[in-house]
C-alpha cells in the first residue's frame, strides 16, 4: 500500500511524513546523514580523500604538477577543481563530455575555494615568475544519492589537508629542476569551508541534506558555505521564495554543521598521523 | 565623469522593449553603464528529448561579449534559468519551449542583477504568463564594512564581498541569492534588508516601462 | 489594488472589487487573469478590460500566437499525412486539418489542397494538452468563406494586437482603404493578413498601410490613407 502511494503520488507520500516531522529514512528534518571520511587512500596521488554522506560517495584525488605562472600574477599557483559525474554514479548521466550538472558543480567548487581563501595561492609558489605548483583536483562521484555538492566540498577540503608536496629546488647554474621526494611539506590550509545544502519542499518545509528522491521532489534548494563562524557563500538558484526567518534558520543550522564536519576531518587527520 | 551617488541609491536605469523584430520578446536594459540585451522566444517548439508533458521547458543561453561561453557561464545560466522557472507559469504551456538568450554588451558592475532584470523585462515584453515579477539588486561590502548598492566595477574590485539578491514582487521574499567573498551573518542580514528596499524601485521601473510601451499601442 | 478598468496591471497584482453579474452571481475571468484560493491575480502585463455583464480580461500585446478554440486563422499547409493535412499557424506546434472538414468533401471526393497552399480555417479543438485541430466548415457544413485561398495576393505577418485592432469595428483603416481601392482580404487571428488588390501596386500599397498603422490613432490613419490614395493616383 505504501509502495503504491510512493510510485503514483510521490509528493503525497512525502507530505505524510513531513507532517509528522520525520522523513522516510527515519531522519528528522534538521538531521544530516551519517558522514564517513577516509583520508589518504590513493597512494599515487599527492592528496586524496573519500567522503560518504549516507549513500552519496565522492572521492577526491589531488595531483601536483609544475607550471609557469600567469604573467600578471607571478606569485600565484593554480588550483583546478573538476567534478566528474559518470554513468557509474547514476543512470541520468551519459558518457562523453561533461554535462551541465558537472560543469555547474565544478564552477561551484571553484567559487567556494575562491570565496573562502582556503589555500593561499602564493603558498604554491616555488620561484616567483618562473615556477609554481598546479594542483589538479579531480572529484569523482561514485554514487549519486543527492547532495553531491556538500560531499564534493568536504572531500576537496579533506584531500587538501592531506596533500604533501615534495620539495623543489632550481639549480642556479644549470636551471635544472630538482625534485626531492624524500622531503615533503604539508600544504597549508588556512580555513575549512563546509557546505550545507537544504531542500525546500511545498513552500514551507526546509530539510537538510536531501537524498536524490527529496531533491527531485523539492521546489527549491539553498546551499550555505561557512568557514568557522563566517559565511562565505549563500547560493540559492531560484526556487520557492524563502522568508527571512527561514534563511536565518538555515544559516544557524549550517554553522552548527560546519563545527561537526571540521571536528570529523580533524579527528580523521589525527588518526592517520598516529 | 563620476556622478555623486549615495550608497543606498541605484544607478539610473533605462530600457528599450520590443526592438528586435524577429523575437517574441526583447529588452535592452542599462543600469548605469552595464548593458544587457535579452531576447526570448516562446512558447514555441522544443526538441522531443527535452519535452516535459505537463510544463514548458525553459532554456537560458548566455553569451559573453568576447569569446565563447566558458564553464563559469554555465553556473550563471543555471541561476537565471532556475529563477525564471520559479516565475513562469509553465503549466499553462505544456510540451513547449521557452528560450531566453542573454547577450553581454557591457559589464560595469552589478552584472548578474542586470541580467536577471532584463530577462524579466523580456518576459513581460513577450507577455508570457508569470506568477509575479522578480527584481534583482546587487550590493557589495567594502573592507571597512560599508554597504554600497548597485556597485560599479571599481567599487566591486575594492570590495570584500559581493551579494546579489532577487526578490518576488508579491511578498518580497528571497527567490535567489548568489554571493562571492566572505561576510558575517549580521552583514548578510543588513544587505538583505537594504536590497529589499531597493528592489521596490526596480518594480516601479518595470511599471513605468510597460506603461510607456502600452501607451503607444492603445 | 482596487478595480481600475483601463489601467495597467503587471503579473502578480491583486484585483479586487470586481462586479458580478446579477443573474448568475459569477465573474468570468478571461485571458491574463487567474484565481489562487480566494484571490484574483493577474498573470500577464496589460490593461484591464471589461465587457457587460461580467467578463474581465487583460489586454496585453503579444507576438506569438497561442491557439484558442473558435479563432479563425490563416495557415500554410506543410504536409499531407494519411487522412489529415499539417498546417503551420505560427504556434508552438502545427495544427491538423482533416480532409473531410471541407465543404462537399467525402472519402471519395478529396479537396484540392497542395503543400504550400494558404488556408483560412477555424479551430475546432484547441487546448494546452492536445494537438490543435482546424476545420474549414461551420457547424452547418457550409464553408462560409473558409477554405483554400487561391490566385495570388500577399500574406503579411504582424502582431496579434495589430490584427485585433484591424478587426475592431471602430477602426477606420480597412474602411478608408476600401473607399479608394477595391481589394479582397482575409484576416487571421494568428497575426497573418492576406490581401489581394486589383494589381500589384495596390496590393503592396495596402500591405504597407497595414504595416505602419500599428501604432497610429484613427486620425493619423485617415491622413495616412489619404496620402496613400493621392500617391497612387499620381499626385
The gist of it:
The complex is a heterotrimer of chains A (274), B (218) and C (235). Chain A has 274 residues and is α+β, with helices and mostly antiparallel strands.
Protein architecture, described:
The complex is a heterotrimer of chains A (274), B (218) and C (235). Helices cover 31% and strands 33% of the residues of chain A. With 274 residues, chain A is of the alpha+beta class. In chain A, a hairpin with a 3-residue loop joins strand 5 (125-127) and strand 6. In chain A, helix 1 (2-8) packs across helix 2 (10-19) and helix 3 (100-116) packs across helix 4. Chain B is an alpha+beta fold. Helix content of chain B is 33%, strand content 32%. Chain C is built from four helices and 16 strands. In chain C, helix 2 (173-180) runs parallel beside helix 4. Classes of the chains: A alpha+beta (274), B alpha+beta (218), C alpha+beta (235). Chains in contact: A-B, B-C. Chain A binds chain B through residues 100, 103-104, 106-108, 110-111, 114-117, 220, 222, 227, 229-244, 247-248, 251, 255, and chain B through 71-72, 74-75, 78-79, 81-86, 163, 166-168, 171, 173-185, 188-189, 192.
Characteristic key phrases:
heterotrimer; B: alpha+beta; 5-stranded mixed β-sheet; 4-stranded antiparallel β-sheet; 33% helix; 32% strand; C: 235 residues; alpha+beta; 16 strands; 19% helix; exosome (chain A); rRNA processing (chain A); ExoRNase_PH_dom2 (chain A); nucleus (chain A); Ribosomal RNA-processing protein 43 (chain A)
Order of helices and strands of chain B: EEEEHEHEEHEEH
Structural class by secondary-structure content of chain B = alpha+beta
- The portion of residues assigned to helices of chain B is 25-40%
Terminal CA distance of chain C: 54 Å
Give the strand tally of chain B: 9
Describe the SSE topology.
The complex is a heterotrimer of chains A (274), B (218) and C (235).
Chain A (H helix, E strand, L loop, with lengths): L1 H7 L1 H10 L15 E5 L7 E7 L2 E12 L10 E7 L15 H17 L8 E3 L3 E13 L4 H15 L1 E7 L6 E10 L6 E9 L3 E4 L3 H6 L2 E8 L2 E6 L8 H30 L1
Parallel strand pairs in A: 4-6
Antiparallel strand pairs in A: 1-2, 2-3, 3-6, 5-6, 7-8, 9-10, 9-11, 11-12
Chain B lengths: L12 E5 L7 E7 L2 E11 L12 E7 L7 H17 L9 E10 L4 H15 L8 E9 L4 E3 L3 H6 E10 L5 E8 L3 H33 L1
Parallel strand pairs in B: 4-5
Antiparallel strand pairs in B: 1-2, 2-3, 3-5, 6-7, 6-8, 8-9
Helix pairs in contact in B: 1-2
Chain C lengths: L7 E2 L4 E2 L12 E2 L3 E4 L2 E4 L3 E6 L3 E5 L12 E10 L2 E5 L6 E4 L19 E8 L7 E3 L11 E3 L4 E4 L2 H8 L5 H8 L2 E6 L3 E6 L2 H13 L5 H16 L2
Parallel strand pairs in C: 3-7
Antiparallel strand pairs in C: 1-6, 2-5, 4-5, 6-7, 8-9, 8-11, 9-10, 11-12, 11-13, 14-16, 15-16
Helix pairs in contact in C: 2-4, 3-4
Amino acid at each position: 500500500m505504501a509502495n503504491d502511494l510512493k510510485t503514483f503520488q510521490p509528493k503525497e507520500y512525502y507530505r505524510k511524513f513531513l507532517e509528522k516531522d520525520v522523513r522516510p529514512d527515519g531522519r528528522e528534518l534538521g538531521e544530516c546523514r551519517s558522514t564517513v571520511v577516509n583520508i589518504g587512500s590513493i597512494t599515487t596521488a599527492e592528496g586524496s580523500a573519500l567522503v560518504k554522506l549516507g549513500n552519496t560517495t565522492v572521492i577526491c584525488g589531488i595531483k601536483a604538477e609544475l607550471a609557469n605562472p600567469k604573467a600578471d600574477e607571478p606569485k600565484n599557483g593554480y588550483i583546478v577543481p573538476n567534478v566528474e559525474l559518470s554513468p557509474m554514479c547514476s543512470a541520468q548521466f551519459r558518457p562523453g563530455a561533461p554535462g551541465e550538472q558537472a560543469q555547474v558543480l565544478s564552477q561551484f567548487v571553484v567559487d567556494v575555494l575562491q570565496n573562502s581563501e582556503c589555500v593561499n595561492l602564493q603558498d604554491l609558489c616555488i620561484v616567483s615568475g618562473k615556477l609554481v605548483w598546479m594542483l589538479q583536483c579531480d572529484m569523482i562521484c561514485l554514487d549519486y544519492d543527492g547532495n553531491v555538492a556538500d560531499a564534493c566540498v568536504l572531500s576537496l577540503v579533506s584531500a587538501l589537508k592531506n596533500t604533501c608536496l615534495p620539495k623543489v629546488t632550481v639549480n642556479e647554474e644549470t636551471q635544472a629542476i630538482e625534485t626531492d621526494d624524500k622531503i615533503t611539506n604539508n600544504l597549508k590550509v588556512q580555513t575549512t569551508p563546509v557546505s550545507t545544502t537544504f531542500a525546500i519542499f511545498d513552500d514551507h518545509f526546509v530539510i537538510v541534506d536531501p537524498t536524490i528522491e527529496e531533491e527531485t521532489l523539492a521546489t527549491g534548494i539553498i546551499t550555505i558555505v561557512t568557514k568557522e563562524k563566517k559565511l562565505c557563500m549563500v547560493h540559492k538558484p531560484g526556487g520557492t521564495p524563502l522568508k527571512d526567518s527561514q534563511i536565518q534558520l538555515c544559516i544557524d543550522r549550517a554553522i552548527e554543521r560546519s563545527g561537526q564536519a571540521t571536528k570529523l576531518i580533524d579527528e580523521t587527520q589525527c588518526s592517520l598521523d598516529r | 565623469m563620476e556622478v555623486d551617488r549615495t550608497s543606498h541609491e541605484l544607478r539610473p536605469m533605462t530600457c528599450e522593449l520590443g526592438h528586435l523584430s524577429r523575437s517574441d520578446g526583447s529588452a535592452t536594459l542599462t543600469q548605469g553603464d552595464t548593458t544587457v540585451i535579452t531576447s526570448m522566444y516562446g512558447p514555441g517548439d522544443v526538441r522531443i528529448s527535452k519535452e516535459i508533458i505537463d510544463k514548458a521547458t525553459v532554456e537560458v543561453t548566455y553569451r559573453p561579449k568576447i569569446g565563447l561561453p566558458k564553464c563559469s557561464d554555465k553556473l550563471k545560466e543555471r541561476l537565471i534559468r532556475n529563477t525564471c522557472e520559479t516565475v513562469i507559469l509553465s503549466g499553462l504551456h505544456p510540451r513547449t519551449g521557452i528560450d531566453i538568450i542573454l547577450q553581454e554588451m557591457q559589464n560595469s558592475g552589478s552584472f548578474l542583477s542586470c541580467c536577471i532584470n532584463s530577462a524579466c523585462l523580456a518576459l513581460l515584453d513577450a507577455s508570457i504568463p508569470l506568477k509575479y515579477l522578480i527584481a534583482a539588486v546587487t550590493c557589495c561590502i567594502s573592507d571597512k564594512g560599508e554597504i554600497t548598492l548597485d556597485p560599479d566595477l571599481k567599487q566591486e574590485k575594492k570590495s570584500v564581498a559581493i551579494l546579489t539578491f532577487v526578490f518576488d514582487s508579491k511578498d518580497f521574499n528571497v527567490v535567489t541569492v548568489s554571493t562571492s567573498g566572505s561576510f558575517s551573518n549580521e552583514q548578510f542580514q543588513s544587505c538583505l534588508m537594504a536590497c529589499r528596499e531597493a528592489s521596490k524601485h526596480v518594480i516601479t521601473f518595470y511599471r513605468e516601462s510597460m506603461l510607456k510601451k502600452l501607451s503607444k499601442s492603445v | 489594488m482596487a478595480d481600475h478598468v483601463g489601467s495597467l496591471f503587471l503579473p502578480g497584482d491583486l484585483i479586487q472589487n470586481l462586479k458580478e453579474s446579477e443573474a448568475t452571481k459569477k465573474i468570468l475571468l478571461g485571458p491574463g487573469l487567474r484565481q489562487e484560493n480566494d484571490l484574483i491575480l493577474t498573470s500577464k502585463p496589460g490593461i484591464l478590460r471589461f465587457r457587460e455583464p461580467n467578463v474581465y480580461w487583460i489586454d496585453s500585446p503579444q507576438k506569438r500566437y497561442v491557439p484558442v478554440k473558435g479563432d479563425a486563422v490563416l495557415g500554410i499547409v506543410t504536409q499531407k499525412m494519411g487522412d489529415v493535412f499539417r498546417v503551420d499557424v505560427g504556434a508552438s506546434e502545427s495544427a491538423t486539418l482533416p480532409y473531410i472538414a471541407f465543404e462537399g468533401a467525402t472519402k471519395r471526393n478529396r479537396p484540392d489542397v497542395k503543400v504550400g497552399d494558404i488556408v483560412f480555417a477555424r479551430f475546432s479543438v484547441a487546448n494546452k494538452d492536445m494537438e490543435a485541430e482546424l476545420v474549414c466548415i461551420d457547424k452547418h457544413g457550409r464553408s462560409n468563406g473558409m477554405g483554400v485561398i487561391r490566385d495570388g495576393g500577399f500574406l503579411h505577418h504582424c502582431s496579434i494586437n495589430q490584427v485585433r485592432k484591424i478587426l475592431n469595428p471602430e477602426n477606420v483603416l480597412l474602411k478608408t482603404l476600401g473607399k479608394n481601392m477595391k481589394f479582397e482580404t482575409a484576416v487571421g487571428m494568428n497575426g497573418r493578413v492576406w490581401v489581394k488588390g486589383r494589381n500589384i501596386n495596390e496590393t503592396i500599397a495596402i500591405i504597407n498601410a497595414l504595416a505602419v498603422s500599428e501604432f497610429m490613432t484613427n486620425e493619423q490613419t485617415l491622413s495616412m490613407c489619404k496620402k496613400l490614395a493621392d500617391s497612387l493616383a499620381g499626385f
